[in-house]
Amino acid sequence: MTRLNTVMAQLTPKLRDVEGNIEMARNVLSRHAAADLLVFPELFLSGYTTRAPDELALDLGGPEVGEMARLALEHDAAVVFGMPERVPGGVANSAVFVNRRGEVAGSYRKAQLFGEERGAFVAGDELLVVEFDGIKAGLLVCFDVEFPEVARSLALAGADLLVTISANMDPFGRDHDVFATARALENGLPHLYVNQVGRGETFDFAGGTMAVSADGERMAEAGASESAIRVSLELSARSKERPEELRPDYLNEMRGPLPVATAR
Fold first, then answer.
1. C-alpha span between 98 and 74 (Å, rounded)
2. What value does the mean pLDDT take over residues 142-157?
């Protein structure tokens, strides 16, 4: 598959209302037949909160994830969504990937925790690339996108596509507008970036959901209101005008960390 039909769901999840948010996902899926991949924001099933996440923690094998998997199977589409995942030692801020067969293909636990998240969630210690329909997708969650090393590691691991789910708040909308574009351009990979929008428990979320090509061009974007944006994403390599296309192994040629000298 060289072209992927995607839906980016920029929504305002209902706080502490898992059933209501699953219903929201059901409505989006039912309105977008023939999509290959639907992406929902960070902590979508619970709404974004750092207060008592243990009260909202869900299991990968639980009925809530099972219902999302059933929806994926029913609509023949892969789905990515965020949730507070119960893990050994606490709760992780996870991006769950369900394939079109209704199978949980993987769960990425956010490694770069932001602000109060550090006291609420257990940080992940492993990045994740999931394969579906012959495509390899590297998953990121919000603050991860601000670290070039995360996306570069996913690219070096063979990802064809970057997918970031987010709950980025004002006044940091401009930050992610730049970072989401940069991660695509510097790695030569298309990037789906899906954020929350509207008023949450504590923050106003910045929206700015976008699809970025491997050349760093904006293919589709949402404004500052709830919307589900459909985009047909080209997964081929960069344009032939770029020298990397002449050297498809350029990522592997990257020089490793260099020492830093101090001049006085």
1. 12
2. 96
Q: 195 forms bridges with which residues in the sheet?
A: 166
Q: pLDDT value at position 242?
A: 63
pLDDT of 249 higher than 90: no
Q: What is the pLDDT of residue 223?
A: 86
Both structure tokens of 194:
């899906």
- The three-state secondary structure class of 59 is coil
Task: Look at residue 7 and tell me if it is in a domain.
Answer: yes
For the chain, what is the domain count?
1
Amino acid at 259: P
Q: Which of 85, 117, 142, 146 is catalytic?
A: 142
Query: Using CA of residue 34, residue 37, residue 41, residue 43, what is the dihedral sign?
Result: positive
Residue 78: inside a domain: yes
Rounded to 5°, angle at Cα 103 from 154 and 151: 10
For residue 70, what are the domain limits? 3-237
Confidence category of residue 245, pLDDT binned at 50, 70, 90: very low
Looking at 110, 117, 146, 221, which residue is catalytic?
110
Written as one string, the DSSP assignment of 181-197 is: HHHHHHHT--EEEEE-E
- 142 catalytic per annotation: yes
Instruction: Please tell me the number of Cα atoms within 13 Å of 256 on its side-chain side.
Output: 0
User: 42 catalytic, yes or no?
Assistant: yes
| 12 and 44 Cβ atoms separated by less than 8 Å | no
What pLDDT shows up at residue 251? 57
43 is a domain residue: yes
CATH of the domain at 230: 3.60.110.10
